[in-house]
Amino acid sequence: MTERRTDQMTLVAFMQASNVSVYSGSWRYPNAAQDYLSLAYYQRIARVLEEGNFDLMFFDDRLAMPGIYGNSVADAVRYGARPIKLDLTAILGAAAAATTHLGLGATYSTTYYQPFHVARTFATLDHLSGGRAAWNIVTSVNDAEARNFGVDKHFDHDKRYDRAEEFVEVVAKLWDSWEDDAIIGDRESGIFADAEKVHEVDHHGEFFDVQGPLTVPRTPQGRPVLIQAGQSGRGRQFAAKWADLIFTGDPSQAVAAEHYADQKALVAEHGRATDSVRVLPMVYVIPGETEEIAQQKESIFLHELVHPQASLTLLSEVTNHDFAGHSLDDVVTDELIESVSGIRGLVQGVKRHIGDQVLTLRVLANHRATLLQGPRFVGTGAQIAEQMEGWFQSRSCDGFVIAATHFPGAFEDFVRLVVPELRARGLVREEYTGSTLRENLGLERPENLMTASAQTELVDDRVVEHA
């Protein structure tokens, strides 16, 4: 059985700096807050999450409106299918100011940013938040994003990961370019820092040439927490090498348990302790004061709020294929799968979820825009806690990424109804015990690879450490 450092769940809140949550009909729910263009909105949610002792408030991001369907953003705008994506820098800063312990994470692409920019952004956030920053590493391929950044052609799948590998290597070097004790701050002598403890990274690779050092000293966490959610074979290998948190999208507990075991084995193959990485599936949680109330809410979310055209618009975005010439009732054939490069993994996942049901574009699209895109825990607080405990104790996960049906009510209900039940079972903390995100996750602070004691050299194909 895979070992686990802690017997308590990791809890992550899945956020969008948007008019909607990851559930595209959330803006239509009657008590969904409408002040999503204000800092107060995100600060309010952050305080709720900290009250519930969540580990991390994580923001997904996309650098374009959904504009693949019909080669237009019209339907995304018309039906509110994620047309708004605010810049995350200010939002993370505001959330940091409103909280004391809550981790703060964001998606930054290795395709459209540069290593120095990402390293500086997250190092700054880590300092200003007292050690609570996390970076979700993504390799972008969406054509709508490409058009916003003047990119004519993306690298193929493996080349994108080759670039991402080097990108993260450079970022890690930049984060380590200051030794922990480099700053002296001796006013009397006039010596601010020890120049021998601030290093140029002098990186020259296939994709990047970066001199360094970073303009931000080494951070409270040493390095911000790294997140990855790659589902392909190469993506899982990348996550096993680099990630502290791995987000998954498995449709059932059986699939999640299989994925969990596979991912932990890959972590071990990379020479890392399996308990140093958290595997966290995304789930929806719909609590109610009674089981009947929870089921009524679930029915509304399933059937009443997502416009079918919004679903198809988002399916075009995620697969990078224009479905404007198709009907929602078209059957997903082998020929269609062969003609759409980005659809195979999604189809395989949905088929595992629906079994023998005929797979149409409507069904496929609904698994991208509605509650069908992830497992659902529905019921009273006690019932949901029991479902979550079942996944956790069976080694199907190390915790959960909680996706909201609407903001801020979904998280308010979860903290009010479910968290007390999880606490009573000893599955989540009563209070924060660490001062940094890594400490609260039970993760060690990484050693600085630029210091003399950590330098390595390659001898006879073996890495040997020396003082």
TrEMBL record:
GO terms for molecular function: oxidoreductase activity. It comes from the Bacteria. Keywords: Flavoprotein, FMN, Monooxygenase, Oxidoreductase. Transmembrane segments: none annotated. Its EC number is 1.-.-.-. Residues 34-390 form the Luciferase-like domain. Signal peptide: none annotated. Belongs to the NtaA/SnaA/DszA monooxygenase family. This is LLM class flavin-dependent oxidoreductase. It comes from Rhodococcus artemisiae. The lineage of its organism: Bacteria, Bacillati, Actinomycetota, Actinomycetes, Mycobacteriales.
